[in-house]
Amino acid sequence: MAGPRKRPERIEALALARAAQSPDLVIGLVGAVGAGVSSVGRVLQRLLARAGCASVPVRAREVMQRAAPGDWAAAAADLPIRRFRALQEIGSRLRQDNDNAFVAAAMIAEIHRARAAGGPLVAVCDALRHPAEVQLLRSVYGEAFWLLGVVCDERTRHARLMRKYGFAPDDPDAARAVQEFMGRDEDGGLDYGQKVADTFRYADFYCDSSAPLPDAGCPDAELDAWPVTADLARFLALVRADRPMLRPTEAEQAMYHAYAARLGSACLSRQVGAVLLGPDGQLLSTGCNEVPRAGGGLYGEGTDDPEEVERGRCHALGGYCRNTDERNRLVDHVLDLLEEQGVALGDAGTRAGLARRLRRSRLGHLVEFSRSVHAEMDALISAARRGVSTIGGRLFVTTFPCHNCARHIVAAGVDEVQFIEPFLKSKALSLHADSITLPREGWVPPSVARRLGQAGPQRVCFRPYVGAAPRLFRRAFLKDGEVKDAMSGRLLDMPQDAFENRRPLVEGYRALEARIAARFAGEG
User: Domain named CMP/dCMP-type deaminase: which ranges (predicted)?
Assistant: First the structure.
């Protein structure tokens, strides 16, 4: 009778687990139309090639064309601006007929086909336009998936699209058509339409493509002079983890604090966080959007009885959003007035359809009835309660400020605002064009201009945030392994015994579990 099998002298299960991690990398791109996302994708591939890493482009346009060839051919024959509107509608229909992640599913099929050649694969997906697409890719590829957000100021995007479609710069009809096209791209207004603005918030890193680039295939010298190239190189260094002592910039650290403040909000609409830095970079105050509490501060703060701390939050006080409720009441009031004036609205179903359309109109963009102090206001008020000057400060906020916050920011003497998520309901730029500007060459902070006695006009700069997203911090900056030699103290080329930055398992955790158990039992 055979005796029990002996286990091998060394099981080395950790080495087995490390070897089972996937070498694949999937990079998604998201950005508004006109931002030059495709050019950024091609530059990214060039930088990957420089690092000795071949990549495969996976383009949404191509996978949609294969999914609906007849509709695509008909749209391609139309005039340029109408063509791209038709292409948007094809994407919406494909999502409606399948699900909102349809385009990402088609991309996954392309990646699967590309892998048939064998070997490690790096895929660059151009471009994602719905949050469900990000959700599917992250569900499938886990930490092997990275999302790069491409920002570009609206005026630059508009000018690029006018040139692209061959319109005269002073053609008002063309300008309106392009503006409408841009709006549909950011939020099509339908559950199955494009929602670039919502998708953007899930990025791991942000770069600003506003600076012109002659061509993505330009000579290396021109490519290296393009400001975006350095940001993309930093992104790849974080993705590849090949620079162990790469640390957050001041802006990245500030936005991470804003993100942490955001998590304290129990707002039923969205969580927003803000942090105010002084002129010397010192953290002055933080804020989140939450209902104010008598005595100073917000609900959720303090060491009082837990019920008192929670009492006035919207989820505890009725369990509904007052701003949404007031907007709905306004819509009903407008419809009632129309009926009083003899306007026939039809049956109850027709009236309900009109109400839905009004709620998606500018009437549904009102933010004036919220009970919450917004995050930016909370940061400014918190500084004021402590007697800290806000003059010359820099405000980092997770979402573009609304027009209510914008006027307080200007009045508080803040020089600059950096934001991540767009906020399509904000009228800050149109209402305060005299005191707010987007990034522009030659801008001087108002506090500096006043100190130097420079003549106006002086404006607060609202600029999109560039750098690592807060969601990336743990993966990118956590020191999760030894970075120096224990004997000599010298910096190692790569961290040893790192365990946090894990890629997905090629075979799945159950297969790896079975292999380790078999080896432990002496069977493998």
Answer: 242-431
